[in-house]
Known about the structure:
Monomer. It is found in: Cytoplasm. It comes from Sulfuritalea hydrogenivorans sk43H. ATP binds at residues 11-19. Helix 7 (146-159) packs across helix 8 (166-182). The chain has helices at 17-28, 35-49, 56-64, 89-98, 102-113, 128-132, 146-159, 166-182, 204-217; strands at 6-10, 31-34, 68-71, 74-77, 80-81, 121-125, 138-143, 195-198. The protein is globular. It is an alpha/beta fold. The mean pLDDT is 96. Bound molecules: cytidine-5'-diphosphate (2 copies).
Amino acid sequence: EITAPVIAIDGPSASGKGTVAERVAAALGYHYLDSGSLYRLTALAAVRAGVALDDEVGVAELAAGLPASFVGGRILLSDDDVTDAIRTEEISAGASKVAALPTVRAALLARQRAYRRFPGLVADGRDMASVVFPDAAAKVFLTASAEARAERRYKQLIAKGMPANMHALLQDLQERDARDAQRSVAPLKQCDDAVLVDTTPLGIDEAVAAVMAIVKRQSL
Ligand code: CDP
Ligand code: CDP
């Protein structure tokens, strides 16, 4: 059976996964999966339904039936545009809490694999290479220092005219990194067969070029 090729891009928060994955997908004409948005949508759905984030059965039920759609760069939950609502610090932390629940991860697995379509898929997250697409044609682990990543988030917030505190951002990011790396299922870590790209000193164009070079080596 011939399956569409996958480029898996994993890494911690604000390493540049989303930006780089979208650009690589556009360059190759591939589909794009932002797997983190599914965990964010699950957390938002739980908060809105009054389901506790540690209620594994309740949260997994919501994850399995998420009425999510992705339309022209916007993210909808039923008819509600939640593109911005899923990016708050509260929902970021909530996403990493529900992401630690094995039943929730299992409930989202088939939905993620359904994005694999021709001519190919670029998928970003934490476990794209390890669990969701272990047969990916190219595996990239994007990282950057915690300080560089907190500064990127800071600049993103300031650019949107939103309040930002560098110290709080760094602390939130390190807490989320720790929770994601220490959980027992699908922890954040570099796979043996993934290529490490440290974007600390790289601009976006340079990070995209570094990933494209890895992709080209696989003749994709
Ligand atoms: O998806 P992830 O959380 O890994 O990161 P992102 O949302 O793609 O990137 C976070 C921010 O860092 C965005 O504003 C990017 O434009 C910026 N960025 C950067 O300044 N330099 C890079 N090499 C990569 C991303
Ligand atoms: O953009 P950023 O890297 O900050 O976050 P994200 O990729 O949207 O993911 C939000 C949270 O969802 C992460 O902190 C992880 O806990 C979880 N996640 C996961 O467990 N597995 C994935 N494949 C993607 C996200």
